[in-house]
Amino acid sequence: MTLKATPLNSAHRALGAKMVDFGGWDMPVNYGSQIEEHNAVRGDAGMFDVSHMCVVDVKGANTRSFLRHLLANNVDKLQVPGKALYSCMLDPEGGVIDDLIVYFLAEDWFRIVVNAGTADKDVAWMNQQNAATSSGLAITQRRDGNEPIALIAVQGPNARAKVWQVLPTTQAATEQLKPFNAALVPDTAFGEAMVARTGYTGEDGFEIGVPATQAEALWNALLAAGVKPAGLGARDTLRLEAGMNLYGQDMDETTNPLDAGLAWTVDLVSERDFIGKAALRAKGQQAQFVGLILREKGGILRAHQRVVAASGNEGEITSGTFSPSMQQAIALARVPMDVAIGDTVQVVIRDKHLAASVVKLPFVRNGKVLAA
Q: Which are the contacts of 61, defined by CB distance < 8 A and separation ≥ 6?
């Protein structure tokens, strides 16, 4: 099978990146030291190629009403151009088709960024609902078709300053930008840029969308400004420390978002109906999504390891790693409802029961360890 390549593939190879098959995409896992890449984001500035993710533009007079029905979170929260919202898109049974970010650009234009591996499925589902509701919208994916958009995430305490060094014409539009907002800046040296403050690492920074033809030039300019390239390995340890879900690992179509720690993204209060609402109300929350810190030596926390509560009820780790920031084994886990923050549970690792503490997420945010 031929792997798909982002517009930055040659740039990764020029830097000597270790490339891996990531859901059918040829992507860098690291450029030498995953730990150094992780620490660069926590302490300075690092950048990730996220062009395998897919920008989808939804345009038309009925866009807002369409998204009210399509998404579990309420797009009526988006009233100021540039405002962004994190949401799940559910099936009728309440399973998570995908988690995504939607940006309000104009009343007849919303931009959605969806996950790489679910993009084709997502766009097909959107088109199906567009037809079913006779919404008459133009739904255009901007990754593989005409006028493709490449995405580069620049993260870390010095990320914004270094982006402004490379993209000085974006500073005026983004200096006062609050988290979960974006600005469209037409006059950069790399064409029109969408600059968003919606990161995935627990650090500040920007996600920059530019024409795919300009991606490598922007990447190299950021590199020259001292932004360290970071691969999928560091992205995973960073997002896990930040307590952020990964689609396909911490949730999927078999998962109720209420059981994935995402109740805050689901609007069950307003009268607005959305796909999956009735199923969520019927099922309710059946498990908790928490952090675990391993307290005994003898293993690393990994997905699918069993978690045994004091009551004997069991849960499961969904993601696990060794935290470079904490120097401890940590995990995200779905556990029984009778487990409380501060409890000790047992994780089954190679037939051994090892003690782990249940902690509130996130583990790390803005360079500070919050869970100990």
A: 108, 136
Same structural domain, 190 and 136: no
Q: Are 28 and 163 contained in the same domain?
A: yes
pLDDT in tens, 318-339: 999 999 999 999 999 999 999 9
Strand order across the beta sheet in which 182-188 lies? 182-188, 191-196, 205-211, 149-155, 46-49, 228-229
Q: Are residue 156 and residue 132 in the same domain, yes or no? A: no
Tell me: pLDDT of 372 over 90: no
Count of CB atoms situated within 10 Å of the CB of 153: 24
As given in the structure block, the two tokens for residue 147 are 């006028």
Greatest Cα pair distance in the chain: 61
- List the domain range (segments joined by +) for residue 365: 287-372
In this predicted model, what pLDDT tens digit does every residue of 6-27 receive, in sequence order?
Answer: 999 999 999 999 999 999 999 9
Q: Record the pTM.
A: 0.97
The CATH number given to whatever domain includes residue 220 is 3.30.1360.120
Which helix or strand (DSSP H or E) is residue 44 part of?
none
d(CA 28, CA 49): 8
